[in-house]
Design brief:
Blueprint lengths: L1 H15 L13 E5 L6 H17 L3 E5 L6 H9 L6 E6 L5 H4 L11 E17 L7 H10 L5 E4 L5 H13 L4 E4 L3 H10 L4 E5 H9 L3 E6 L25 E9 L4 H16 L1 H9 L3 E2 L4 H21 L7
Parallel strand pairs: 1-2, 1-3, 5-6, 5-7
Antiparallel strand pairs: 3-9, 4-7, 4-8, 4-9, 4-10
Helix pairs in contact: 1-11, 2-9
């Protein structure tokens, strides 16, 4: 709890220590750095917000994709960029876990960024090959216990949220899988459908089309309650693990030092965009729940995520390959 309070306090200081700014911002193009490739969930949200902001504020908002290092490459670029209100970083949930997975980051997650808004959250789906004999999470766990380490988990890399979610479940249920890391989710799904791996814990955004096409079978969802899009898929919590809840999430941060009036202005515009029915419908179809948080709410969310998943990383002695 003390660690969480320290993190929240650190982020809070950043929010309160901004100088005054001119009211005519923006007067030139604004850059949204996306630490992941074109077409992914982070990229889609970044481009959606950028398009709307360009129309609303009269200057181009340009998405610059800088993938690599599970988000570290893009984050490092953003941390070193000018805090003049023209550089921002669209972030994914691994912003909170990279400090525990990497021995030495080229930035400080708490000191170098000012959280602005948590855009949205989405649960994960635990999926297997549609021809697999497992019909429930219990079936899968029972079979995995009979063959420790033989069941394989496709993941987007060591310490990805899907990997950590399964590691947490393994602790609670007493089974063990072997992780197989991939460069991207598309190859994971190809191998899952082809029978080369046993399971994937993937974002609803990505796995849902494959479930709908009956190419994979969803055994569980990681939300607290069942999803409207998957009413017949039970939660992990209701299958013997009360309180189990894991979400992916997306947000936006600024390099430390951006004038507070600029942060307030972009936050107000983004809030208006996310309140629009078209934007809401589009994101909800992707399985995302819109949050449109205040900066302070995002501070608390990020601090809690760092506390929770930092413990999972430490307990399971997980470290990213350097």
């Amino acid at each position: 709890m003390r660690a969480m309070n320290w993190l929240a306090a650190g982020f809070g200081v950043l929010l309160l220590s901004q100088p005054a700014a001119a009211q005519d911002w923006p007067v030139k193009p604004v850059r949204f750095i996306c630490a992941f490739g074109v077409g992914g969930s982070s990229d889609q949200i970044a481009r959606l917000m950028a398009d709307h902001l360009s129309n609303a504020l009269g200057q181009p908002f340009i998405v610059e994709n800088r993938p690599g290092g599970t988000g570290v490459v893009g984050a490092a670029m953003a941390a070193k960029s000018s805090p003049d209100g023209y550089n921002y970083l669209v972030v994914f949930d691994n912003l909170a876990t990279n400090p525990y997975l990497q021995k030495k980051l080229p930035y400080d997650t708490v000191k170098d960024f000012t959280p602005i808004m948590l855009f949205a959250t989405s649960p994960y789906g635990l999926v297997v090959n549609s021809a697999a004999p497992y019909r429930t999470l219990g079936d899968l766990i029972a079979a995995a216990k009979l063959k420790p380490g033989e069941f394989t988990l496709g993941s987007s890399g060591v310490g990805s949220r899907g990997h950590l979610a399964i590691a947490s479940l393994e602790q609670k249920a007493g089974f063990k899988t072997t992780q197989v890391a991939y460069r991207g989710p598309a190859q994971i799904m190809t191998d899952l459908i082809g029978g080369q791996i046993t399971m994937q814990m993937g974002t609803f955004f990505f796995v849902s089309p494959f479930v709908q096409a009956k190419r994979v079978r969803a055994l569980a969802v990681s939300s607290a309650a069942r999803m409207a899009q998957w009413p017949d898929v039970p939660t992990i919590a209701e299958q013997g693990f009360p309180g189990f809840e894991v979400h992916s999430w997306w947000g936006i941060v600024a390099p430390t030092g951006v004038p507070k009036p600029i942060l307030q202005k972009i936050h107000a515009e983004m809030s208006r965009i996310l309140a629009g029915p078209d934007t809401r419908d589009r994101l909800e179809r992707l399985g995302m729940a819109i949050r449109a948080s205040t900066p302070q709410e995002f501070v608390r969310h990020l601090a809690a995520e760092m506390r929770i998943w930092g413990k999972v990383v430490r307990d399971n002695k997980i470290s990213a390959v350097q």
